[in-house]
């Protein structure tokens, strides 16, 4: 086993910083010779240690490009996942990140893939592609939103080869529409300088930063709304609450809520649900009817409920899941604010949202995050 201490330190650096990664999101990798060490699925970057990485055989991963997979998405992902599992080195028992194939495509030794809200203001912006062309075309590639897993890796592969043929060098960054960011370099110091430079460029193009300053909520109204939501969620409900300037503005009207009315990225769906519920009022009756309409529309209860004039609640079966849902909700508020500078919010399509909701791999991640 090679020395993975630099990979561990790099992973914790970005994994421990909420501006880059939240919950179980993001992943990192390191290549040495014929081996690739990639974050195992269900592991958190912020607290990862050497045994949180899955050892892969790079030749076996490369051989996946010679294979042909079924057209139908479920059969395709199942076959690709089986080949991915078979590409582990002998004795490796962990499950590699679903983005492993993508890591393997970059020849650089280190790859750090994150989901920073500021960068996602571009990847989830209607004019995101234009902003990318202005800011990053010389050093990076843009990948449109496609189904995660095999199809994403295939799309990245084509973009990487196109850049290489055109520029005669490797891209060092990648922006992934409605998803996130990736940096590839030969050593951790380069990863840090490329990342810092990219973040500064994004910040320079942002006209309004999210205002997450706390707002105090009326204690009685808050207690009443919490009691109503707890009874709607049923026995064992865990609630978390936040009130800040963005939330109060976004929950002010249907029109103001539009940027949050659908999903930005797969991580938002996995951890905070594909749809947030905006109640019409803080009254018990208002909450009950909005909740009932949500359940009949979606077949499951909301994980995030915005209450006008009050704030946002997360409702889940465990305290951990409620806290994580609220983190991802706040991240969506940030993405919405950043996206204002890049043409306004661009959500995933319904078809892509449904793919994530049904995806076996994402179900596994949801189960891990819920502590099942
Ligand atoms: Zn990702």
Would you write up a description of this structure?
- This protein has 372 residues and is an alpha+beta fold.
- It has two domains: 5-205, Class II aldolase/adducin N-terminal domain (L-fuculose-1-phosphate Aldolase, 3-Layer(aba) Sandwich); 219-369, L-fuculose-1-phosphate Aldolase (3-Layer(aba) Sandwich), CATH 3.40.225.10.
- 47% of the residues lie in helices and 14% in strands.
- The chain has 16 helices and eleven strands.
- Strands 3-2-1-4-7-6-5 form a seven-stranded mixed sheet, with helices on both faces. Strands 8-11-10-9 form a four-stranded mixed sheet.
- The longest helix is centred in the C-terminal third of the chain and has 21 residues, at 319-339.
- The two termini are 31 Å apart.
- The mean pLDDT is 94.
- Bound molecules: zinc ion.
List its traits:
372 residues, alpha+beta, L-fuculose-1-phosphate Aldolase, 2 domains, seven-stranded mixed β-sheet, four-stranded mixed β-sheet, 16 helices, 11 strands, globular, binds zinc ion
